[in-house]
Amino acid sequence: MQIGFIGTGVMGTGIVLNLLKAGQSVVVYNRTKAHAQKVLDAGATWADTPQVVAQQAPLVMTMVGYPSDVEAVYTGENGIFAGIQAGSIVVDMTTSTPALAVKLTALAHDHDVQALDAPVSGGDVGAQNATLTVMVGGDRAAYDRVLPVFQQIGQRVNYFGTAGKGQHTKMANQIMIAGTMTGLTEMLVYAKAADLDLPQVLTTLSSGGADNWSMDNYVPRILKGDYTPGFFAKHFLKDLRIALQEADRMHLDLPATKQAKLLYEAMVDDFGLGNDGTQGLIKTYEQD
Amino acid sequence: MQIGFIGTGVMGTGIVLNLLKAGQSVVVYNRTKAHAQKVLDAGATWADTPQVVAQQAPLVMTMVGYPSDVEAVYTGENGIFAGIQAGSIVVDMTTSTPALAVKLTALAHDHDVQALDAPVSGGDVGAQNATLTVMVGGDRAAYDRVLPVFQQIGQRVNYFGTAGKGQHTKMANQIMIAGTMTGLTEMLVYAKAADLDLPQVLTTLSSGGADNWSMDNYVPRILKGDYTPGFFAKHFLKDLRIALQEADRMHLDLPATKQAKLLYEAMVDDFGLGNDGTQGLIKTYEQD
């Protein structure tokens, strides 16, 4: 089966390379063609628009930046829905809004097309090593058909229900991470000010009830002054904004997540550090 | 060596039982004598005041409730300093303020006594199983002498420096946990509202970057409606208040930890849930 893939950024590139490695035939489109060179060199073919991708592939996957990019890629003039064949499947892997997932699914059904929302976690390393976690919502029959493809790019694939449920699960994931990131940042700010031996604090805390993945992975990087992105702060801020919009829509008040969003807003919008990794949050405390 | 132990609550009881099991001779005092019965039955002896404990033991350990209790036990009319012999060692294991640890150390030195602050993490289970993490500050020579005793009650024992550094490390630990607890609570509130399969969300999140000890341990309890305390919310609130007072003193602004304190304040003071475990925070969201 020909697979169409739109969006060959860091994540998309890793995913497409794994699909090619698994023997799939992949046709790609990316807004900036130069950024597709790596997958083209590895055997993918090029299409000039999302529409052309959709004309050539019965399974179209997308991994772009923001919900507005998702909408443009699907519903724009030369978008996927302009080229899609009845009986096809579309899969949006962008972390985007549950509401947009519902809307795109309805539009897909108008074209006799099935749709999935399938955001991932695991970052660039997970994309490269095919160890992503894939959180899927949407048409169950489509999930069953696409599962073997997901398994070529991810380690843990789970179906969470109707359209938008994949995105909701990803939001739950990001809300949890907002807690670990703000916690580890303020822990480190405090421990530095108290003049503690920071590696020894890390060892002690990770042996008990304070242990968490973010601390174990990001504190050593911060202590080395390494703020390169495992995950871009600007993308994390996007995710927190979506999570809080959805929370509002469900009449939920999430004060700790709101506070985390304010902190990442300061980092990205006021300090201009959106291209740092999420661990760069600590810089905003040090510039007070 | 005779060991004096003041404070036979849940934590103190577990610790004293392990000292007795290790062959130590222990004399105890507790404000409510009935709560010492378990350790008396196991072989500890009773003293009527902290002063008498100090008269009988060259090593006096304390594990009481609040900093005000610590101060009373050491400096009160029938307190430790009224009975202590020169050359003795005092060890406060209560989670208390770094400033009080510094003050008690100075007072101890006036009596030719050495002092340690040695708060622990690991909860009642850690106290029972001798798997506590012990974070020690204070007189280095005293630490070297007491280390074999700490090793009878804890699994990981670390020296962090001068008086108060043990308490500062414990505060860093609690600041980190404030992040994981608020994060897991809001994650769960969101996931419930989005009607996700909660055990499946937990499995998915713990396989990736959102993983943390608090989520793995408390979410299953919350899903069973189990709010019994592994760690009392009222004690966690006390710790967050100390952490934020210390942060203020060091001219640090920790907005996420402040927000966590506000949430636990609502739980303990407004909802009267201080005797629940820290995982009971989610009840305050559900009662909105």
Automatic annotation (TrEMBL), chains A, B:
- What keywords appear on the UniProt entry? NAD, Oxidoreductase
Superkingdom of this protein's organism: Bacteria
Q: Which InterPro entries match?
A: 6-PGluconate_DH-like_C_sf, 6PGD_dom2, 6PGDH_NADP-bd, HIBADH-like_NADP-bd, HIBADH-related, NAD(P)-bd_dom_sf
For this protein, the record's SUPFAM superfamilies field holds: 6-phosphogluconate dehydrogenase C-terminal domain-like, NAD(P)-binding Rossmann-fold domains
All copies of domain 6-phosphogluconate dehydrogenase NADP-binding, residue ranges: 2-161
Key word Secreted present: no
GO MF term list: NAD binding; NADP binding; oxidoreductase activity
* A Pfam family that the UniProt record links to this protein: NAD_binding_11
Per the similarity annotation, which family is this?
Belongs to the HIBADH-related family.
The identity of this protein, by name, is 3-hydroxyisobutyrate dehydrogenase
